[in-house]
Amino acid sequence: MYKTYPFTLEKLPYGYDALEPVIDAKTMEIHHDRHQQTYLDNLNKALTDKNDLHSKALEELMMSDIDAVRNNAGGVWNHDFFWKTMIGAGESSINDDLAAKLKKSFGSVDEFKVKFEAAALGRLGSGYAWLVKNREGNLEVLSTPNQDSPLREGKSPLLGLDVWEHAYYLKYQNKRADYVKAWWGVVNWGRVEELWKA
Ligand code: MN
Q1: CA 141 to ligand 1 center in whole angstroms
Q2: How far is the CA of 191 from the centre of ligand 1 (A)?
Q3: I need a labelling partner for 35 at 20 to 30 A (CA). Which of 44, 75, 167, 195 fits?
Q4: How remote is the CA of residue 100 from the centroid of ligand 1, in Å?
Q5: What is the sign, positive or negative, of the torsion defined by CA atoms of 166, 196, 137, 105?
Q6: Which spans in the chain are helix H?
Q7: pTM attached to this predicted model
């Protein structure tokens, strides 16, 4: 659970270069130190004069009707989530339990990936592709615009892919499809399984 206002930036769970060559160190540095920091700064700014929100956790602020609060809280939470579901290339694979669940939900692991990639590529402009667990415990693939969260629909993220251009433009330029395909190599499947079973 997150602490409350004033929020501070969490460190990356690994070095900037940990996800090379899939995500380059420069992209990670700018993405974390500048983009996520900006969401955090803007969130604190938006909360400064809202004393009634100072005791709220990030997850609660993400439900706010105030645009500046909701968007910037989402920007902080979504990035923390994104960092934590990645790991060095080749360090993780899908274990049998999770593979069976994905097969049951989507037909096969490959069909799940096709569906997830379609969500990532079909998101016009900026946003995220997600694998989520719904209230019934079933898995779904969906995408959200900007910094919106599946939590707002009562769905728990298990895996999320940032498809904002700032996430891939330095290395992949306009080729979002190449980034999405390469990204499978750095997914932390152990973390996905932990969240699924939680
Ligand atoms: Mn981002």
Answers
A1: 19
A2: 19
A3: 195
A4: 31
A5: positive
A6: 25-30, 37-47, 58-61, 67-84, 96-106, 109-122, 169-172, 176-183, 189-197
A7: 0.96
The CA 145 to ligand 1 mean position distance, Å, reads 12
Å from CA of 96 to ligand 1 middle: 31
The average pLDDT across 137-155 equals 96
Ligand 1 centroid – CA 102 distance (Å): 26
Q: Token digits for 42?
A: 């803007």
Cα(75) to centroid(ligand 1), Å:
7
> pLDDT grade, residue 2 (50/70/90)?
low
Domain annotation for the chain: domains and CATH numbers: 25-84 (1.10.287.990), 96-197 (3.55.40.20)
pLDDT at 3 over 90: no
